[in-house]
Amino acid sequence: MSRLARFASIVSVLFFALVVVFFVLENQQGATLSFFGWSTVELPVSVFTLLALLVGMIVGPALGAVLGRKRIRQKA
Questions:
Q1: Per-residue pLDDT tens for 50-64?
Q2: Confidence of residue 75 (pLDDT cuts 50, 70, 90)
Q3: Which of 42, 51, 49 has the alpha carbon at shortest distance from 23?
Q4: Which of 12, 34, 47, 76 has the lowest tally of Cβ within 10 angstroms?
Q5: pLDDT (tens digit, 9 = 90+) per residue, 38-48?
Q6: What is the SS3 assignment for 38?
């Protein structure tokens, strides 16, 4: 990896981390979620949003891998 690409990667990661920190600091008001009769304890809005982001980052690629395997099987 060239020095410029490494520098750009580091700057991108640091920028993303800074945006996340600002987001968390700006969204400290409490909220509870209710879903099908189940409700959570009161947590900051940023916690729920970051959890949704993490779940999406896990579920999205997993679903893509499952669907990709299904397409390969259909072609064969």
A1: 888 889 999 999 998
A2: low
A3: 49
A4: 76
A5: 898 998 988 88
A6: strand
Tokens describing residue 8:
């750009």
Full residue range of the structural domain in which residue 41 is found: 3-75
Count structural domains, the chain.
1
Please tell me whether residue 10 adopts helix, strand or coil conformation.
helix
Q: How far is CA 35 from its chain centroid?
A: 20
Rounded distance between C-alpha atoms, residue 7 and residue 23, angstroms:
24
Distances in whole angstroms, Cα of residue 62 to Cα of each of 16, 58, 66, 68: 23, 6, 6, 10
The answer to whether 40 and 32 are in contact (CB under 8 A) is: yes
> How buried is 48 (Cβ within 10 angstroms: 0-12 exposed, 13-18 middle, 19+ buried)?
middle
